[in-house]
Amino acid sequence: MLVVTTEKIEGFKIVEVKGPVFGLIVRSRGIGGDIMAGLKGLVGGEIKQYTAMLEDSRKEAMDRMINNAHHMNANAIVMMRFDSGEIGNNMSEILAYGTAVVVEKQ
Question: Are strands 76-87 and 91-105 parallel, antiparallel or unpaired?
């Protein structure tokens, strides 16, 4: 599955647009992570637990988006983007989205 942030893929022609496709994940930080983040916030620096959680979440959201595109019989996703938000005090939402398409090599 080709996934690009651009609207075109060099060397390929879009022959069919399948439509919007997305992958969504919501994760809770957990009390242990909140305590460590609070302590780290006092002294400054990267909060590695949150960084790892967000990296894993983006990968999972992207994997879900690709899986959804496969179900639509697409072989590429163009204009891929990430969006994120907070739900409540300790949950993060990560959304990967784009347009599922069928491409052929030129």
Answer: antiparallel
